[in-house]
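Quick one:
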Amino acid sequence: MRDRMEPAAGNETSAEAAGTNEVAAGVPDCSCAEARAHLEAFLDRECTADLTERLAQHVATCPYCSRIADAETHLREILRSRCAEQAPPELRARVLGRLSTLRATAVSVTTTSTTTQTRTTASGRVVRIVESRVESSRTVHVEGD
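Output:
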């Protein structure tokens, strides 16, 4: 079953549809499926430089993927504009104050275990062996009222 967003056979206009594996710049082209799979990471600028270059080239030459990228970009702009509200100043001040209090009262706790052994050497000397081992280390936030 064909992806309903995928262009019908014969309608692709990308380098892939033209039967080439590389675009003029010498960068290996990616398929529409690969472009769709990485579109969100591409738009968030989270791809490697090589993948970003390949996806940018593909989106620039494939009208189908270009439309999808444009639609996703437009959707992100709408969401960004609708979610621009900030918390009221009183709430922001309370939260920031609480965070600074929590940071100031952080305590590092380290759990160790110690074992002591007494042994006698071949020469008859008594030796005490003390072995300490760190079992865990963590930071605990002490919260006040």
